[in-house]
Amino acid sequence: MATAAVQVSVPAPVGQPDIGYAPDHDKYLARVKRRRENEKLESSLPPGFPRRLDSDLVWDGNTLAETYDWTYRLTEEAIDEIEAALRHFKSLNKPLGYINQETFPLPRLHHTLRSLSHELHHGHGFKVLRGLPVTSHTREENIIIYAGVSSHVAPIRGRQDNQHNGHPADVVLAHIKDLSTTVSDVSKIGAPAYTTEKQVFHTDAGDIVALFCLGEAAEGGQSYLSSSWKVYNELAATRPDLVRTLAEPWVADEFGKEGRKFSVRPLLHFQSTAAAASREAKPESERLIIQYARRTFTGYWGLPRSADIPPITEAQAEALDALHFTAEKYAVALDFRQGDVQFVNNLSVFHSRAGFRDEGEKQRHLVRLWLRDPENAWETPEALKERWERVYGGVSPEREVFPLEPQIRSASKGESVGTQGGGGY
User: According to the UniProt record, where is the region Disordered (predicted)?
Assistant: First the structure.
C-alpha cells in the first residue's frame, strides 16, 4: 500500500523509551519480556475496578456480524424526506450554524435516528448510516445534509478548531484527507489523518465521532473499530499492572496548541454505580472510558514529542502497545463507502484506518463532526471536563464554521498541518 512520499525522522526526547507512532510488534514483545524478567509487576487491579465488564459494548469484531447488523440502509422514502429537509433549510437563508432538528425537519426518519443514538450510548457503540446521495449535490449541500441528519442523532456540535482564515471562529467540521501532496513542506504534517499512512487505534475528543464519506480511495483506507471494553477485559484478566498504569496520570503533549505545553490526566476512567448514585447520575452509569491518542505520547512527523516535557515510562510504552495490539486482535473492519456516515461512541470504541492510495478521481475524503446528545450522554469524567469544555463550551450558531475545503494552517509548533481537532481519523 502506498504511503506519503516523505517520512520525517525526528529525535526523541532524552529518556524517551524506544517507541514510535507506528507500533512495532517485535519491540513490544521484547519490552514485555524485559519487564517481566526485571520488574515486580502488580498483580491486582486498582481499587474498585471491575474484574470484568458485561455489556453489549463488549464485543469481538471477529464474530460480531453473526449477531449485530451495524448498517442502516436509507430507503427511497427516507432520502426523499432528507431532500425535502435540504430544500426547507435553504429556503430559510440562514447560516449553517443554525442547522438543527427544527430547521432540518425529518418527521418520519427522526424516530429511527433517535434509536440510532440509543444504540450508540446503550448498545454496541457504533452504527453506519448508508446511502446519502453525494454525487447529486454540491459540497455545501452535502455538508448541510450531513449536519442536518446528524442533528437528529446528537444535536450538539463540538469545536474542532478555534480559527478560520486567521479569525476566531467555532470550526465544527473537519476534512480528513491526504494533504501530503498539497502542502509545501510535508515535515509540518503533525497527524496521520492528513497522510495516506495507516492510522493506529485511538480516540478523538468528545462523545460521538461522526464521519461522512464524500469520496473513496482507489485502494485501501478501510475503517476499523474495536471495543475498548473488550480490550479492558483482556488486560484486567492478564495484565492488571497495565490497567493500573493506564489509570495513573500521563503527561500528554499538547504541542503548544492555544499556548498549552502539556496536560496531565489518566487514560483510563472508571465510573462505579455507587459513585454515580452519590452524584445522582443516571442509574446505568457504571462505565469504563479510555481516552487517548498515541501521537501525543510518541509524536508524529512534524510534531515530535516535546523535549522539554517528561518522557513516558517503559510501563506506559508497553501499555500503549498493549492497547493497540489488543484492539487490533478484536477489531471489526467496516466497508466505508461514498455516502456512508459512521457514528461511533468515542468513549467506548477505538477507531483506526488502513493505509490507502488515491488516484485520479478516486480520492479518499471524509468530513468529521464531534457530537453530543444531552438525552443519552454519559457523564464526563472529572479529569476530562476541561477538555470537553474546550470542545463543547460556548459554541454558538453565529460563530459556527463549516469549511468547504481542508484548512491548512501556517506551520509552527502547535500550528502544523493536522493539529486541528486533535486525534483525527
Answer: 406-425
Q: Which range marks the domain in which residue 354 is found?
A: 25-412
Residue 23 one-letter amino acid: P
pLDDT digits (tens, 9 = 90+) for 200-258: 999 999 999 999 999 999 999 999 999 999 999 999 999 999 999 999 999 999 887 77
Phi, psi at 352, each rounded to 5° = -150, 180
Joined together, the cell numbers standing for residue 199 give 492510522
Closest CA to 57 of 300, 350, 283: 350
Q: What sign does the CA torsion over 159, 294, 336, 63 have?
A: negative
- How many C-beta atoms lie closer than 10 Å to residue 169's C-beta? 16
Residue 419 resides in a domain: no
What pLDDT is recorded for position 4? 43
3-state secondary structure of 107: coil
> Whole-model pTM?
0.92
| pLDDT for position 6 | 47
Q: How many domains does the chain divide into?
A: 1
What CATH number is attached to the domain comprising 248? Answer: 3.60.130.10
Please check whether residue 420 lies inside any domain of the structure. no
At residue 10, the pLDDT reads 54
Give me the DSSP letters along 110-173: HHHHHHHHHHHHHSSSEEEEE----TTS-HHHHHHHHHHHHHHH--EEPPSEEEETTEEEEE--
Establish if 246 belongs to a structural domain.
yes
pLDDT band at 300 (very low <50, low <70, confident <90, very high): confident
Gap between the Cα atoms of 244 and 242, Å rounded: 5
Give Cβ neighbours of residue 37 (< 8 Å, ≥ 6 apart).
none
How confident is the model at residue 192, as a pLDDT?
Answer: 76
- Tell me the sheet residues that pair with 299: 304
pLDDT of residue 50: 95
Assigned domain for 66 exists = yes
